[in-house]
Design a protein that fits this description.
Elements (H helix, E strand, L loop, with lengths): L9 E6 L6 H12 L4 E7 L6 H10 L3 E4 L1 H5 L8 H7 L5 H8 L4 E9 L2 E7 L11
Parallel strand pairs: 1-2, 2-3
Antiparallel strand pairs: 1-5, 4-5
Helix pairs in contact: 1-2
């Protein structure tokens, strides 16, 4: 996925509804991040088997990292949402998943909703080991 030599590697956090298509997910990633190199897609564990997410990851050539609601809830985020707490038990999916998968890296794209997909991105902390569940 590298298009710019030396560009930072990004981790993409996603919040999505069941049934979201791979085409929509890839389109949102490209709209928000262009063709920057990404290392993985990260989300809540209950979305791990979503066909659209699995296909989008395959198309982008990256793994999926998933986290429980409890793990996500431990991550301080700039944009918590009470509706997300009510729906999935954590105040953040996209931002928290991006930060966790980036090993505590820096959030460089705060969450935004595009075509019904919540997306955030973090730059990986190169000094920390990758923390993930697959």
């Amino acid at each position: 996925m590298r298009t710019t030599e030396g560009a930072p590697e990004l981790v993409v956090g996603l919040g999505l509804r069941p049934g979201t298509s791979a085409d929509r997910i890839v389109a949102v990633v490209r709209k928000v991040l262009g063709f920057n190199e990404i290392s993985c897609l990260a989300t809540i564990d209950r979305r791990a088997g979503e066909p659209g997410l699995v296909s989008a990851a395959a198309e982008l050539g990256v793994p999926i990292r998933t986290y429980s609601a409890a793990e996500l809830a431990e991550v301080p985020v700039p944009n918590p949402d009470s509706r997300t707490v009510a729906a999935v038990g954590t105040a953040s999916v996209a931002e928290a998943a991006a930060i966790l998968a980036a090993a505590g890296g820096t959030l460089v794209v705060p969450k935004r909703t595009v075509h019904g997909v919540v997306i955030a991105a973090a730059q990986r902390n190169p000094a920390a080991p990758e923390r993930h569940r697959t």
